[in-house]
Amino acid sequence: MGLVVQKFGGSSVANAERVFNVARTITETYKEGNEVVVVVSAQGDTTDELIEKAMEINKKPSKREMDMLLSSGEQISISLLAMAIEALGFPVISLTGWQAGMKTNSNYSIARLKKIDTERVRSELDKNNIVIVAGFQGINKYDDITTLGRGGSDTSAVALAAALHADVCQIYTDVDGVYTADPRIVKDAKKLDEISYDEMLELASLGANVLNNRSVEMAKKYNVKLMVLSSLHKAAGTIVKEVNDVEKMLVRGVTRDNDTARISLLEVEDTPGKAFSVFSLLAKHNINVDLIIQSIGRNNTKDISFTVASSNLDEALSVLNENKSVIAPKDIQWNDDVSKVSIVGAGMVTNPGVAAKMFEALYKSNINIHMIATSEIKVSVLIDRKDAERAVVAIHDEFDMAN
Ligand code: ADP
Ligand code: ASP
Ligand code: MG
After folding, report:
1. 244 C-alpha vs ligand 1 centroid, how far in Å?
2. Which phi and psi angles does 343 have, rounded to 5°?
3. Which ligand is nearest to the Cα of residue 344, counting in written order?
4. Is the pTM of this model over 0.85?
5. The ligand 2 atom nearest the CA atom of 48
């Protein structure tokens, strides 16, 4: 007996049959004597469909109104799921993010949770209710609805688990757990029984959307026991935990991220302070920069290339163009037809051959590398998007990750 937080993603509640399937998983956990708090996402592709609806009306809507719109998806699924649980004869109540005390900052569309007032959820649990909470949404100090960024329901679940001191946070999705690669891309990808928070955080940040990266960050910070499981059938899943007894694998997984674009500033004057002015400008506009390359100076000029999220490309380009006189590049080029492919593994740091092996796999597949970045536990390359899936398969094979 304990307190269990369960999260069900969009595909897990996509239609009536799946909603009932999820309702049965929840009520079984409840029948075992547990207190159960459930976080649920919008059904199927609802969030994407709502975005399309907005675009039909206004191509540049305010973020506040977007959050108002997108949060409605989760409100549909919490009520439907609660009705299914009622139909099964169990006590249940659904709560929006606001009702559940999910307090965020005011960064609409990508708000951060600041605090959770758990009184309401706690009092519903004390009344023996199963509590269903809308994922992905919260409320700011102006009492306006905010959303936590795409995939944010995972973060809602982990945050609730931390605030309620839950015994476990179970993330139910449409695959059996975390794999060595996206099983939709690599047919023989292998399910991992365990993975460390750090490795999972890298994988999630580098495109493995099975878990949202902020949710992993939060699980690590508050030491939440996190599990990834299938909502469709019973299987062991993957446990995400502190590193100690997780075997240090050379390479734990390979992932690709299509949400990236490259910007190059050509022939910038080779004097101190140029990189500072470029990147402080972008930081001022809240634009995150990822891979960075600066060429060595030749003829008093150098080239600076970097990547940003695709969604930030337009803004980054206009900021740079507005400040062209300060930075003074000869030309600004960009390419959003690229992908970032990365390998992740905690054992990598002590093994110098790993990056070379990755590059060999790409060479053998005749795939050209535009940029490279490494850290202690990852190697990332930027390549043409058309090559990305082929690259993931080739790298998975090269490291023999299926075995
Ligand atoms: P949910 O709607 O449940 O939140 P998501 O679509 O956000 O589900 O995440 C699950 C998907 O993540 C899977 O269907 C799978 O295609 C993808 N995925 C990407 N990388 C991995 C990985 N390494 N292991 C498992 N799934 C992955
Ligand atoms: N419904 C939101 C999205 O599609 C949140 C989530 O699924 O986690 O991004
Ligand atoms: Mg998700």
Report:
1. 26
2. -115, 150
3. 1
4. yes
5. 4
**Cβ–ligand 2 contact at 151 (below 6 Å):** yes
215 residue type, one letter = S
Q: From first to last of its 403 residues, what are the pLDDT tens digits of the chain? A: 799 999 999 999 999 999 999 999 999 999 999 999 999 999 999 999 999 999 999 999 999 999 999 999 999 999 999 999 999 999 999 999 999 999 999 999 999 999 999 999 999 999 999 999 999 999 999 999 999 999 999 999 999 999 999 999 999 999 999 999 999 999 999 999 999 999 999 999 999 999 999 999 999 999 999 999 999 988 899 999 987 555 666 899 999 999 999 999 999 999 999 999 999 999 999 899 999 999 898 889 999 999 999 989 999 999 999 998 888 899 999 999 999 999 999 888 778 789 999 999 999 999 999 999 988 899 999 999 999 999 999 999 999 999 8
Ion ligand 3: residues, Cβ under 5 Å: 9, 151
For residue 150, which of 110, 178, 100 has the smallest C-alpha distance? 110
Identify the residue whose C-alpha is closest to ligand 2 atom 9: 150
